[in-house]
Amino acid sequence: MPSNKLPPELWYRILYYCDHPSKCSISKVSHRLADVVTEKRGLAIGRCRNRGITLPSDEILSLSFENPDLPLDTKVLKKHNPFGRCISLSPSTMNRFHVEENYGGQAFIGEVVRELTPLERATIDFVLDYESIGIPRWMIDGLRPRIIVSAVLQRCDGAGTRISAKIGVCRLDGMSQPGNFTQKARTL
Amino acid sequence: RIYPLMRVTLTTSDGASVTVSRQLTKHSGFIEKAITDMAVDDNAVPLSAVAVDVDDATLKLVIEWLTEHRDDALPYPEKTDEERRADDIPAWDQAFVQKWDTKEDQQQTLYAVITAADKLDIKGLLDMTCKTLANKINGKTVEEMREILQLECDFTEEELAEIRKENAWCEN
C-alpha cells in the first residue's frame, strides 16, 4: 500500500507527532499531503476557537503556517495575541523583574539585577518558558512563537533608577539556535 | 466478562482463518463490537468467525503485537495534546518495527499495520505505528520525505517555482 493511500484521518494522527517545520515540509511533498496539512491546520484552528482561544487574524495565521521561520510583526501579535491572554511586562524598581500574565497567576522569570553604577545601563533578555505558564505544547508546536522580554535599567544621577522594558515576539528558527534560549545580561 | 481461554476465529480478507484468544481480541474495539453484535454466548468455543478486512500476513503481525501487549491496561489511556510525544515507544515495539526494516517492503508493511490497527480499532498499536512513521519523517527535507514515503512529486513547474521561492524566503 503506498503512503498516499492512507486516509486523511490517519495522516492527522501521524501529524500529531510531527514538529512544525516538518509539517511545513510535508505540505510540499505532494498535492494530497498539502491538502492534508492544510486541513489539519484548519482542525487546529477550529480547536483553538472551540476552546475560546483568540487567534491572530487569518492572514497572520496563514503566514505563520506557511513560513515557519518568518519573524512576525510584534505589534500585530501583541494586538492579536495568539494565546488569547495578555502577557505584560511589569518592570519594577525592585531587584527582580517579573513577567505577569493575567490568567490566574504570575509567571516569574526573575533575574537578580546587580547594583548599577550611575548612568550605567544593563539589558537583560529573557526567554519565556511557555509551558511553565500553562500555554499548551500543541499550540507552541503550531505557532512556534518566542517572546523575548528585554528590560533596560538606567540609573540616572540623582534621579533614582529608570527602568524601561519592551517585549518582542519572533518565530523560532527551527530549534537550531539553542543559544537564543539562554538568558543573558550585558552592560552597554 | 472476558474468559481468557475463550477463542475467536478471525477470517481475513484473503480467506485465511486465524483463531486467537479473547485475551488478545479484547484490545480490538472492532472485534469486541462484532462479538457483542453477534449476541452469542460468551462460553461458546470457538465463536463464530469474525470477518476482518485485513490480510493474513498483516493480521499475523497484529497478533504478534497483541500477544506482547495482552496484559496492557484497558481502556487504552487517551493522551492529551500536551502529553503526546513520539519518543516514548517501548523497546519491544521498536524492535518489533525494526524487524520489518529487513524487508524490502518495510514501508508497505508499516502502512498496512497502521491501516489494520485503525480498522481493528487497536489504539495502542495505532499510536505506536503512527509515532514510528512520524519519527521517520521528522526533520527530513522535502526530497527525503518523498523518498521515505515513496511519493512522486506531482507539483507543476510553476508550483515548484513557487515552493522554491518560499524556501528561499525561509532559508534567508
From TrEMBL, chain A:
InterPro entries: F-box-like_dom_sf, F-box_dom
Domain F-box residues, every copy: 5-39
Pfam name, any one: F-box
Top-level taxonomic group: Eukaryota
Protein name: F-box domain-containing protein
UniProtKB/TrEMBL annotation, chain B:
Highest taxon of the lineage: Eukaryota
Domain SKP1 component dimerisation: 123-170
Pfam families per the UniProt record, alphabetical: Skp1, Skp1_POZ
Any one GO BP annotation for this protein: ubiquitin-dependent protein catabolic process
Domain SKP1 component POZ: 8-71
UniProt entry keywords in alphabetical sequence: Ubl conjugation pathway
UniProt family annotation: Belongs to the SKP1 family.
Protein name: Skp1-related protein
Native source organism of the sequence: Pristionchus entomophagus
